[in-house]
Amino acid sequence: MRKTILTGDRPTGQLHIGHLFGSLLNRVKFQEEYETYIMIADVQALTDNFNNPQKVRDNVLEVAMDNLAVGIDPQKATIFIQSLIPEIAELTVFYSNLVTISKLQRNPTVKQEIEQKKELFKDSVTFGFLGYPVSQAADITAFDADLVPVGEDQLPMIEQTKDIVRKFNKIYGQTLKEPEALVGGFGRVKGLDGNSKMGKSLNNAIYLADSPEIIENKIRKALTDPDKIKLDDKGNPDVCTVFYYHQMFSGGNLKNIKNECQSGERGCIQCKRELSENIIRFLEPIQKKRKYYQDHPELVDEILKRGTEKAREKSRQVLQRVKKGMKLDYFS
Ligand code: ATP
Ligand code: MG
Predict the structure, then answer these.
(1) Fewer beta carbons within 10 angstroms: which end of the chain, N or C?
(2) Intrachain domains 4-189+297-325 and 210-290 with the same fold
(3) Over 90: is that where the pLDDT of 221 sits?
(4) Which family does it belong to (predicted)?
């Protein structure tokens, strides 16, 4: 039996290079080998965008196109919309008995995100947002996932899922599969502002669909070593965001770039220009493919519709098992 992958994105904006190196490249690689489910997490996106449903709705298509553009093949992988799988919502309710409020409050990613969303949550976070790790456990287990390709920020969610699975199996009998996380080559890509995480809700991202002009502009403003002022000043690549991105896009030439920067032979303007060129070249085939889907949105709709039907079928079987374990299998 082929092993299964479940992964996904929140439709809160277009996908960026953090997604590419954190999760997308792994998805593309593993779709050959694994039964792959890619979820567009609209229900989860609403937990911190409940007051902006149009934004979430619009970005479902954007996120689907980004996945297809980087090479997800709808013949191999199943792309689906979370809210159309009511089984996930049911599992979330059942699992919520197995998690304490204080455990959720201690989740480091949730803690940090609540801090970032102070304006939305004021002095008290919603039940829905605090509980999103529980719904994520439902997402993963609804597909019997073995492997979950994610960025580093999601590791506490996978731990939480394992915890729920173990508790569930102990109380209700062996029913759920325990998943493993798979973090990409760059598990936490830094933002343009030097923030420790590039995020679509953080205004610090290079999007896969950014035009060459926008990329040049963003890189021009990116943070470099503040002590390197003149071209021939010796620089420290370790504190430079531009060098950080060179590591992703300028593989073959990395040693040279580092040496030239450290010895004062390389100016930041030239260094930024080279980085922009490399990013633009890297994204060109992705953008070409994206353009095709932008021109044929009906194709994307069809892919999502078919994917959702298939995903529903799978999650129905899992829910049946769960209900049996919980003695909720009435009249069967
Ligand atoms: P939001 O700010 O709305 O939460 P996001 O940029 O964090 O958006 P998500 O949809 O939450 O994106 O995450 C989708 C997947 O991409 C997750 O597996 C997440 O860990 C991964 N990911 C997101 N940002 C990064 C990053 N900067 N580096 C590596 N992986 C990332
Ligand atoms: Mg996120």
Answers:
(1) N
(2) no
(3) yes
(4) Belongs to the class-I aminoacyl-tRNA synthetase family.
Ligand 1: residues with CB < 6 A are 9-10, 12, 18-19, 22-23, 150-151, 153-154, 187-189, 197-202
- Rounded distance from Cα 199 to ligand 2 centre (Å): 6
**Phi, psi angles (nearest 5°) of residue 28:** -65, -45
Residues 304, 81 contacting (CB under 8 angstroms): yes
Domain 4-189+297-325 is found in CATH 3.30.70.360: no
CA of 51 to the centre of ligand 2 (A): 18
Domain regions of the chain by residue span? 4-189+297-325, 210-290
According to DSSP, residue 211 is labeled -
Global pTM reads 0.95
Confidence of residue 202 (pLDDT cuts 50, 70, 90): confident
Closest C-alpha to ligand 1, atom 26: 18
pLDDT in tens, 130-174: 999 999 999 999 999 999 999 999 999 999 999 999 999 999 999
CATH T-level fold of 210-290? Tyrosyl-Transfer RNA Synthetase (1.10.240)
Q: With residue 136 as reference, give the H or E element that holds it.
A: helix 132-141
Measured from the Cα of 151, ligand 1's closest atom is 20
Nearest C-alpha to atom 21 of ligand 1 is from which residue?
151
Q: Residue 27: which residues within 8 A CB-CB, separation 6 or more? A: 5, 7, 36, 38, 67, 70, 72, 77, 149
Ligand 1: centre distance to CA 190 (Å): 11
